[in-house]
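WARN  no MSA supplied for this record, continuing single-sequence
INFO  ligand: heme C
INFO  echoing inputs
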Amino acid sequence: MVAGDKDKNDNASYLQAAERFAKSEIVEQKNCITCHTIGKSGGTVGPILNQVSNRRPLDWLRKWLKDPNATKPGTKMPNFQFSDAELDNALSYLKDMKRTVESEKILAANPEPMKAGEALFKAYDCYACHRIGDQGRFIGPNLTWVGLRKPPEWERIWLKDPPAYKPGTFMPNFHLSPAEIAALTAFLHSLQGQHNDAGRKWESITAFILDARPRERGRLVAERLACWSCHGENLAGGIKNPNAKPDGFVPAINSAYLDFSEEELQEKILNGSMPEKLVPDGESPPFACPPWKAALNDAELADLLAYLESIAPESAKWEFK
Ligand code: HEC
Ligand code: HEC
Ligand code: HEC
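INFO  complex generated
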């Protein structure tokens, strides 16, 4: 390879491609930028698109743009009813929005796995969907506390092939090598709330702008701690927890406000709770409810309870009273 070849593919070219797309007639007409960051600016509703072709093959992107709802039912991304010519045009931009990730160099330059993992996290732009502190977007679970809630063995299985572990998940398969997975896992496990205050600060500014009531502030707290990463979307359950009583799933908590007294809830949330085994001499369930003491102050705990109250089913609340 001659030096000139490499330049075409270096780290600036994906950003130039993103800037070209940002100025294209498609983005201008359809206003993709209200929801997506493309190049240096844009909205925060959807993933950052600058490196989208690092994680999505062209056929996936074609299908997505044709009908987002077919891939992710209920998505906020509209169906733009593209013509075939418009689709080809959009894809010709998206395919260049791909960064060459020189993972061997990154691994060699960072002998400490945690540091290598941090560099890979940036290089693959995991921030496109995930948040740590006040950085990144909101499509995947917030990772500020991921090291507290998930064991490294599980992270390794997840990162290898997310759709294989959980069919239908929106997290793409990055086809990471075992060395990359080991480094990313070390970095993820190190995330034990060091960036919590940055997230908190962002929330209080957001709450101020939105004039948020306790239950909305509580929703932001639940997002930061990513309760949904175990209790499922809308905290309605559905996440497997093999060999956990009573049914091998993490419980739904959207009606927890009705099932427990406030004192019981506070105690469970602050101190955590370990599920019992379904088959006593079987393996321990991979997930337990972590103790959230270190993550919550009194005001945040009260807001979180207000949020849990607000999502409890109306009919049951009515009967309850
Ligand atoms: C109203 C907000 C909105 C608009 C406008 C919008 N999108 Fe999206 N888009 C989303 C959301 C949200 C997602 C992520 C899926 C989800 O969480 O529902 C997404 C996902 C995507 C993805 C997949 C990204 C990935 O990392 O997998 C692509 C590609 C994409 N959008 C392209 C576009 C393009 C091109 C336009 C303009 C023609 C556009 N979007 C306009 C909200 C929007
Ligand atoms: C296109 C969006 C997207 C991108 C990009 C993405 N993820 Fe995810 N990720 C998700 C979603 C969505 C989930 C939640 C999975 C589910 O329950 O379906 C998830 C889940 C996770 C989890 C489990 C989190 C938890 O709290 O339990 C980890 C860890 C993770 N992703 C790491 C990564 C890493 C590392 C990268 C970069 C190599 C990455 N993700 C890139 C969307 C994304
Ligand atoms: C790592 C996965 C995980 C995360 C993240 C998590 N939980 Fe849990 N949670 C569990 C498991 C597993 C149980 C069941 C424990 C048991 O059986 O004693 C549980 C139980 C609970 C219960 C009691 C529900 C019941 O029916 O027994 C409440 C309330 C609860 N969690 C609240 C929360 C809140 C609030 C958050 C976010 C701040 C959260 N959890 C985050 C795994 C998790």
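The chain has three domains: 3-94, 103-190, 196-320.
INFO  checksum written, moving to next record
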